[in-house]
């Protein structure tokens, strides 16, 4: 596994080489779209690199790249990873924070199963369940996290508007959770779809964090509509202005 500080530099304009090297023959029982998917996987340099370096997913590189740019994760910090399976982001977070089985600092949640990641407490649970926030806090031993990450994505329906709204909703709930539990100075990262963060959510983040950015890491497929919102410098619950009261009062 590569040191996260020195991952191999992607080739050519900051991106990995995308030259097609492996051709997949169509096989009986395999649809044309699954043949295309397999061909893309086999030829995706980030998939190859993830396998070689021991990352659970190519998504690990997205967090590595976001963190290299924004310096969010630090040793000793507590991290919550929403939508954690198969575990790439958990691996990155555990490695940087120095989380161990005796001093676990990272908690992941997903409704899918996930093989254990060293130093990570995993909850197989729907984050949208009412008791999920309490379960996450209990798993953190009652300590507030310094970083809340969300790579959650709903299974795509192919209907763009539905997929956009579902992901936007997941991001909104993740942001509300972050604002409820983060330590002052903490950070929040979440997947959003192109077009960025919904206005209300962006306003919430700007109100509660010192800085808000959007980023499309080089390892995020160019054709994918995903990007990430990064909010840094959580102001703390008391510092948030009482805008609601002012406006409605
Ligand atoms: C893109 S994957 C995450 C990949 C992960 N960051 C990694 O590096 O391996 C998105 C995950 O979000 C999960 N997810 C979506 N909605 C969720 C929810 N409501 N509660 C928990 N997990 C959810 C999915 O099951 C899926 O595993």
UniProtKB/TrEMBL annotation:
Top EC class of this enzyme: transferase
Catalysed reactions, semicolon-separated: uridine(2552) in 23S rRNA + S-adenosyl-L-methionine = 2'-O-methyluridine(2552) in 23S rRNA + S-adenosyl-L-homocysteine + H(+)
Gene Ontology CC terms, in alphabetical order: cytoplasm
Location, primary (coarse class): cytoplasm
Positions bound to S-adenosyl-L-methionine: 87, 89, 110, 126, 151
Domain Ribosomal RNA methyltransferase FtsJ, chain residue ranges per copy: 55-234
Annotated active site: 191 (proton acceptor)
Location in or out of the cell: Cytoplasm
Single GO molecular function: rRNA (uridine-2'-O-)-methyltransferase activity
E.C. code: 2.1.1.166
Keywords associated with the record: Cytoplasm, Methyltransferase, rRNA processing, S-adenosyl-L-methionine, Transferase
Family: Belongs to the class I-like SAM-binding methyltransferase superfamily. RNA methyltransferase RlmE family.
Role, per record: Specifically methylates the uridine in position 2552 of 23S rRNA at the 2'-O position of the ribose in the fully assembled 50S ribosomal subunit.
Protein name (Swiss-Prot/TrEMBL): Ribosomal RNA large subunit methyltransferase E
Top-level taxonomy: Bacteria, Pseudomonadati, Pseudomonadota, Alphaproteobacteria, Hyphomicrobiales
